[in-house]
Amino acid sequence: MRERVLNAIYKKLDEEPENENLQRQITLLNMASICTIDSFCLDVVKNNFYELENVSPNFRIADTPEIELLKQEILDELFENKYLSEDKDFTKLVNTYTSYRDDTPLKELILSIYNYINSSPYPLKWLDEKIEMFNIENELDKDFSQTPWGKVLLEEINEELIDDIAILTDSIDGLEYEKDLDEFKQTIESDIKQLTILQENLNNWDKSYEIAQNIKFITWPRKKVESEIKDEIKKIRDNVKKKFNKKLEKIFVSDSKQSNQDIFDMYDILKKLKNLIIEFDEIFSKKKRDKNIVDFTDIEHFALNILVKGVEKTTDKNGLAYEKIVKTDVAKKYTEKFEEIAIDEYQDSNLVQEFILSSISRGNNMFMVGDVKQSIYRFRQAMPKLFLEKYSNYETVGTASNDINGRKIQLFKNFRSRDNVLDFTNLIFKNIMSEKLGEVDYNEDEYLNFGAEDYKKINQSLRTEIDIIDLKKEENLDIENTEYLENDNDTEELEHLENIEIEAKYVANKIKKLIDSKYQVYDRKKENFRDITYKDIAILLRSTKDKASIYEQELIKLDMPVFSDSNQEYLDSIEIQTIMSLLKIIDNPMQDIPLVTVLRSNIGKFTDNELVEIRLSDKYDNFYNCMQKAKVDVNSQLKEKIEHFLNQIETWRKEQEYLALDELIWKIYSDTGYYNYVGLMPNGNLRQANLKMLFERAKKYETASFKGLYNFINFIEKLKINSGDLSSAKIIGENDDVIRIMSIHKSKGLEFPVVFLVNTNKQFNEQDIKKNPVLLHQELGIGAKYINYNAQVQYDTLTREAIKNVIRNENISEEMRILYVALTRAKEKLIITGISNDYAKQLEDIEQQKNIYARKDGKINPILVKKYKTYLDWILLVYLYEQANTEELLELNRIEQNSILEYKMKNDEKENTSQKVIKTLNQKIIDKNKINKIKEQIEYEYPNKLAIDIPTKSSVTKIKQMKNKQLGIDFESLDNEENVNKENSTADTKNITFEKPKFLQEEKDNQITNAQKGTLTHLCLQKLKPKKEYNLEKIQTLIQNLEMNKIITEKEREAINPYKILQFTKSKIWEQLKNAKEYYQERPFYINVPASKIYNEDIEENVLVQGIIDLYFVNEIGNIVLVDYKTDYVENGKELELVQKYKNQLELYKQALEEALNTKVDKVYIYSVYLEKEIEIWHICWNLNIFLL
User: Fold this and answer.
1) Please, are residues 1064 and 1024 in contact by the beta-carbon 8 Å criterion?
2) Is 592 left (phi over 0), alpha (psi -120 to 50) or beta?
3) pLDDT value of residue 1093
4) Paired residues of 783 in beta bridges
5) Is 370 helix (H, G, I), strand (E, B) or coil?
6) How confident is the model at residue 516 (pLDDT cuts 50, 70, 90)?
């Protein structure tokens, strides 16, 4: 910043070389205090630490992960003590805010409240005041409309009623001209009358509540009249009814007394919550003092305490009350020191920073620079309201008024972008951004005016491109934007990555075309056009999580350099995972997953077949011990490999006892050559930088009062669990020629000639306001759910509903500002892409809504804007309203999915390597014999070609499916529920969809499928004990115990049919099982089967087949009986279909069992859970064969 100011002064001095004031500024610049607000606060604390109690001058600033983990440790310790002391208040909190499974929700609630209140100057005071707002025991009869929450709700209802009445009134005009429609007109008039009466009484809660409850929309006349107008008006009326009924369900739910009672009922539990937060704060502060560490929040509050004594309420000359800051002596010294205080990015300030800056100012020497339309850090508790208050109250420079609080200078011109980018941005925001949504009225005073007049014109399209990839509904592709209007579904549901991949392919192809066509960009320094380069292009995403890597891969596939500025993937990168796995087994080698990870990596260099061979040495022991045992049986080459690896691990285990952690990690890099190896991988520089960062992190960790390998591993694991991460290494400089992928937030302050704004169909995140039991707002305070643990009742209080509505509006305003930032990053060309499930329907839906809602104050009605939850919908909404004015500004393109895939196939149709080599050799003068020899080597064909496509490993299920397909048997009529999760083949991974683990599944994901029901039934059958008698009650208890032990979830418990389990205990198989000498359940097996037997091809190879046998037992006469459970739907009398379907599978089970036990299997049964009976399979097969003959 100092350098930029100096350059600006020199530039001005060139224009005015005799200006002595400018010359003096160059001298004074080095003495100026130019720093961030955090740096200024730190300087205040360091120089005035003696003003604080219990703060050492040599404190260390802890980084964010360290502080977050410390908070978790303190919470764990605090909760443990509370449990041990059987604290009744704590027990009530646990019962109220957690389930019996876990107390994590209460911990998360404490942290979220604690983090939020620290953006206030006096956190605990704010919390106390806002909780006391619930203490209305003596005001239970007060009209709810007089509360701050009631005012917010009634104001919102009033605005919506005004719109609804206007919409219905306009619709009547269409009925005036047709006599047959009088009855319909009267119906609409009745609706208007009822809504008008409600609107007129919104100054009284109880009266409006009573009126709302009694509003009845009369039935739409059934009179048969052919009229398009009538049908359109019915749609409009239905829309108004639906909206009103939704408000009735959420807002007009109780009268004043009940609403106030709900609020007061939560007072006691909120007080208990406050006390627990205070206790947490005290322990947290003490722990930080003991460790001599502080965080950035501490520094701000320390500086505040040094500079501000407190606040006192006073009035201005007009009699208006306001809070005045009382300065300390230290603050007065700073006030004398600074003649001028210039604050950049003022729109991102919070209340603590405002207090600090006000305390050092003289009241008339603050120069604040900012653009409220770029305030995008509300999640960090930035308060755009601070900027807006001054923006509204200050007089514009040049006005005649003398009685002013301050002056404002409006900077009209934009010197970054071409006029086409600015005009498109203005078009969008003049339509959707208003004081209600966006918190600023985007009018001509706010327009971006073209100032970069040095841009030269060029004969190429500069219009903004909006490219929408249409995935057509009939393809049944589930993407986020499946419903275009407001819906109650969770918006955080993950998109199908394959759909993002389609968009990423399109963007990569588009960039490739720009590069290949030598698209021209203007070089303002050289004042001429040049070919576009990779660094001229940026891809912006609302969120990079899970998506940036997909775009990165698609660009890499087309040999284009790319850098993804995403923090979320550091701990998930392959190089960090591998080294962390190695550290885990150095600490404790008895961990199978980390051990196998290292063995399969370039460090271990073991093949899959070698690992299988090691595992077969002992199927039940841990893998480390298997390696010790395998040395006896395996060949000499593998034995040597195992010994080398085990010796290396043992060496590192000894060295970790005396080496510093960072030294151990670097020694591992050196001993294994892994650091050099990752350097040869794609993005090798980044991977090496990540490994260096891990080394530095370990060094820093041990200097921060933590010691030891075990603790470091724990630290990293906790970071993962608590959704923390370490930033990826930054290896890209400003001039590196790469395409940048980044979030919109990270792009703020940057500029690029060409910007791709992608994934615009992503819905806005509303999870916080939907799921959090307690919402927080700086002015309205706390919005708590009513929760009565004893009555098992919970619902939203009206305080929560009011705050939820306000936060939702603030979130939409924030999303508008984020979109504004994204659009204004482009200098010359803006390309917007998104995915639509059904493009035609999406446009039709928006068009219908557009016809219902008239413009309001020259803008699109904010109520309509609020209905839509994606950037793409907003852009299309503006396009349909402004279609006549868009021809010169934008082009809207529908992109078919197939066209993207066809383009990819076309690119793949290239000369193969052998043809290129031979062609090159023929062009050179080389001995023909040598050419023929090389040609023979290159074109060599493997004689066992058929074996190439045969997997070395398969599962019984895969083989069963393949055999049925070969026979042309269609089992579509049978619900294929079996073996989906039971046997997972690694042989064919092309079409496998891996299920998300339960702990990663959202509630919405947890719909129990038929396959999962089958797995759950298997689980219950395994838990039955043959020596025990069962009835329905005992079966239900068994299922409940599975839930209590966290083996299954509540939803899974509800999906299990206990009657079906009980019926198994009444079967003939169960009778035999009760008398069995031995029984075995869920026994996995591996068997080598000739490939020729499976694939009907002449192949001299074996396939390793894996499977799991549900049950086998030795009956009372010593014969072996094999049983397989099936939960498929099958009609009674069609047992043969079930047998035919699973015959091949059971043949393999029988063969595996006979080879393992060296004994013949006497009987094989299928137990059909659906039919509740056993089927003796070999008896039926024999009959079936006779029948087929």
Assistant:
1) yes
2) alpha
3) 67
4) 775
5) coil
6) very high
Q: Can you read off the two tokens belonging to residue 920?
A: 């090159």
Please spell the DSSP secondary structure of 178-236, one letter per residue: -GGGHHHHHHHHHHHHHHHHHHHTTT-HHHHHHHHHH---PPPP------HHHHHHHHH
Q: What is the pLDDT of residues 881-938, one digit of tens each?
A: 998 888 889 999 999 888 886 665 555 554 455 555 555 555 555 566 766 766 676 6
Contacts of 30 (CB under 8 A, 6+ apart): 2
Which residue in the block uniquely carries the two structure tokens 């008398």? Answer: 1075
Alpha helix positions (H), 588-708: 592-600, 608-615, 623-630, 636-655, 661-672, 674-679, 684-703
Query: Is the pLDDT assigned to residue 492 strictly greater than 50?
Result: no
- What is the spatial distance between Cα 1163 and Cα 1112, in angstroms, rounded to a whole number? 10
Calpha distance 292→1027 (Å, rounded): 63
pLDDT at 495 over 60: no
Look at residue 507 and give its three-state secondary structure: helix
Instruction: State the distance between the two ends of the chain, measured CA to CA, in whole angstroms.
Output: 91
Residue 457 main-chain phi, psi, to 5 deg? -80, 155
Integer Cα distance of 899 and 272 in angstroms: 61
CA atoms within 13 A on the CB side of 591: 15
Q: Which stretches within 351-418 are classed as H helix?
A: 351-359, 384-393
Look at phi and psi of residue 194 and say left if phi exceeds 0, alpha if psi is from -120 to 50, else beta.
alpha
> Mapping DSSP to helix (H, G, I), strand (E, B) and coil, where does residue 1161 land?
strand
- Strand pairing category for 1120-1126 and 1173-1176: unpaired
Beta strands in 295-445 (DSSP E): 308-315, 321-327, 341-343, 366-368, 395-396, 407-408, 413-414
Query: How does 985-1018 read in b/e, with b if 16+ C-beta sit within 10 Å?
Result: beeeeeeeeeeeeeeeeeeeeeeeebbbbbbbbb
Residue 466 or 62, more confident: 466
Residue 377 CA to residue 943 CA, distance in Å, equals 64
Token couple for 136: 């209305």
User: Taking the mean position of all CA atoms in its chain, how far away is CA 88?
Assistant: 37
Q: Kindly state the average pLDDT of the residues 490-504.
A: 64
Of 780, 36, 818, nearest to 353 by C-alpha is: 36
351-359 and 296-307 helices cross at what angle (nearest 10)?
A: 40
Q: What is the DSSP string of 694-708?
A: HHHHHHHHHHTT--S
Give me the mean pLDDT over the 134-142 stretch: 91
d(CA 363, CA 360): 9
Question: Residue 1141 is encoded by which pair of tokens?
Answer: 């379907």
Classify strands 413-414 and 449-450 as parallel, antiparallel or unpaired. parallel
d(CA 14, CA 956): 83
The Cα–Cα gap between 430 and 424 comes to 10
Task: Find all residues with CB under 8 Å of 403, minimum gap 6, and list them.
Answer: none
What digits encode the pLDDT tens for the residues 840-873?
899 988 988 888 887 888 899 998 999 899 999 9
C-alpha span between 277 and 97 (Å, rounded) = 14
Are 458 and 520 in contact by the 8 Å Cβ rule? The answer is yes
Separation of alpha carbons 638 and 613, rounded Å: 10
In sequence order, the β-bridge partners of residue 523 are 528
DSSP per-residue letters across 868-913: --SHHHHHHHHHHHSGGG-TTTEEEEEEEHHHHHHHHHHHH----H
* DSSP secondary structure string for all residues of 247-268: HHHHTTTS-HHHHHHHHHHTHH
Query: Cα-flanking dihedrals φ and ψ of residue 228, to 5°?
Result: -70, -35
Cα 691 from chain centre: 26
User: Which one-letter DSSP state was computed for residue 591?
Assistant: -
Tokens 């009869």 correspond to what residue? 141
Q: Are 470 and 403 in contact (CB under 8 A)?
A: no
Q: Which residues of 600-614 are buried (b: 16+ CB within 10 A; e: fewer)?
A: bbebbebeeebbebb
CB of 2 closer than 8 Å to CB of 28:
no
